[in-house]
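Input structure tokens:
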């Protein structure tokens, strides 16, 4: 793509081979964004970034992050800020908080450790990464933050993730609305998406019966593709989406209507 590159999109959770994050990173790059890939494995993040950068001829940078750790988030932020200061990346314009883990454990079998981990990665991670990158966006007077919730937050699980996952993803909806309200006049929008079942590796370990039950509950009759989720994330990152903030966009094939 030959458009002038003006902004960087930062994505967490974007190295999983069949994941939503990597597809979204490719879509951003195809639209002319520079991309930053932040994921647990720093080497893989750098490799994925380099591949996307060379395929789409955009600046790209990868760095390790554990979104649940404040120190790790701050280190990743500093590494990205150094690239921006050096001029190797344009200013950060979009943040897609995609990193997440699920948990199919029945409520009475959950442990506090599991609860804390699912909350830490999904909701605290969204908080920490947003807090790191938001000041720069506010200073620039332009930004787009897209937070990954799930239909599980709205209908009470029922896809694969159970109580801790639904609770963590519901926290993201409240976070999104309250932050959107608080910073509405800054030029930075904050929105959430609530996908239903998406065809990725996140449900590794699900049974054929579980997958059949999931498909039977979807009017469209199939899982979403990662491209269908990426399309909404990049739209929410565009100039055209300036008047959408604090929204929750359902992408669920009709499996939950309200
Ligand atoms: N696949 C679905 O059906 C579905 C539906 C609704 C929402 N979601 C959400 O979409 C997001 C992406 O899911 P996916 O299906 O692509 O899953 P995935 O497992 O393929 O990808 C998740 C990514 O997050 C990364 N990650 C996990 N813990 C992390 C941490 N502590 N710090 C940084 N990165 C971490 C993983 O390394 C991986 O790259 C998740 O937040 C998930 O909850 C998925």
């Amino acid at each position: 793509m030959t458009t002038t590159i003006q902004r960087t999109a930062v994505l967490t959770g974007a190295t999983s081979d069949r994941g939503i994050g990597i597809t979204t990173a490719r879509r951003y790059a195809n639209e002319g964004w520079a991309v930053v890939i932040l994921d647990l494995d720093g080497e893989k993040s750098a490799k994925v970034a380099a591949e996307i950068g060379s395929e789409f001829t955009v600046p790209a940078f990868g760095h390790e992050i554990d979104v649940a750790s404040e120190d790790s988030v701050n280190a990743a932020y500093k590494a990205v800020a150094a690239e921006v200061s050096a001029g190797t990346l344009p200013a950060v314009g979009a943040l897609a908080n995609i990193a997440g883990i699920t948990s199919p454990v029945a409520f009475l079998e959950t442990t506090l450790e599991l609860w804390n981990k699912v909350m830490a990665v999904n909701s605290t991670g969204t908080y920490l990464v947003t807090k790191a990158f938001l000041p720069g966006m506010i200073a620039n007077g332009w930004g787009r933050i897209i937070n990954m919730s799930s239909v599980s937050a709205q209908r009470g699980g029922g896809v694969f993730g159970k109580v801790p996952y639904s609770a963590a993803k519901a926290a993201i909806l409240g976070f999104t609305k309250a932050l959107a309200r608080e910073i509405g006049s800054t030029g930075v929008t904050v929105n959430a998406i609530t996908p239903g079942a998406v065809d990725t590796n996140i449900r590794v370990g699900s049974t054929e019966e579980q997958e059949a039950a999931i498909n039977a509950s979807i009017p469209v009759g199939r899982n979403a593709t990662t491209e269908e989720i990426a399309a909404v994330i990049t739209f929410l990152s565009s100039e055209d989406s300036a008047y959408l903030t604090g929204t929750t966009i359902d992408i669920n094939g009709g499996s939950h209507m309200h």
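Residues 8-251 form a domain with the Rossmann fold fold (CATH 3.40.50.720). Helices lie at 20-30, 42-56, 70-86, 112-140, 151-155, 163-182, 208-216, 226-235.
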